[in-house]
Hints:
This protein is of the alpha+beta class. The chain is built from 9 helices and 10 strands. Helix 1 packs parallel to helix 8 (about 190-210). The protein has one domain.
Amino acid sequence: MAAISEAKAEAKFKAISNRWVEETRVARSGEVPEEVFHYTDAAGLHGMLSQHSIWLTDHRFLNDKTEAAYTKTLVRSILDKLDSDDAITRAFLKRMRILSEIRSNDDSFVFSLSEASDDLSQWRGYARDGQGFTLGFDANVLHTVGRPDDAEYSFAKVEYDPDRQSSALEKMIREFITTLGGMKLDATADEKIIKVAADKADWAVENKSLLNKHRSFQSEKEWRIVSYCSPKHDDVRVRTSGLRLVPYNVVKPQGDDVELLPLTSIRIGPGFDDPEAVRDVVRTLADIHGYKPRIEVADTPYRKV
């Protein structure tokens, strides 16, 4: 017979998971930069200004296909390190290993931003090979609107340091193991409780994976807006991107009482042959929709490839 009911155990593990997720998804005020930038193409620029909203991409459709698997790889190394003779711990780790091999089906949507407004690799990768734009946003507004518990999204900094990534994941997994150990369970009779613990721990891992990236990407200095929405939900839309159909979610980070986005600047990419003509069009577009951002041209030396 279990020393704790299944319902109470689930509530306890849910609280642990939620605390770790909150720590992951909420930026520390002192870290928030003055401005963050989103690299996009003409369609993205036009859509966000005309709709006064930002478009978050289903995380399964992000450019970096290894991203979702990266954190799971770290977790498997930690699970091997924590292997134990204790039956409860062993059962928990076994369930975690199974979950670490399963591709996430979580309904997470991501909007990527950078502290760098004029980065060559991002012009090439995310802005039509330099014939695109960056939208600069007031990061403190994004941070403030994303803080309440009932906010549509969270706003946080991407972590690139593998030591910090692994340390946080190991501390979290150890907390679940310690909590299980204090419940005086039987590995056979209380299998459901052990499964619940692993499932809640894996949910926290999934959330951390959205804000962990390989250190080779650290020059991007990325921040992210993250939201959760079922693909069956009315707010999920589908757009085209090249030959792909991409699910996305629409968020208005300015709050209900303000129509305009917290847009501070628009920078014209270095791949245009006549950037001054593009500047005029961008100014017209911004004026039409009520925006008065700084409009600048990229300084990055550029050669088409």
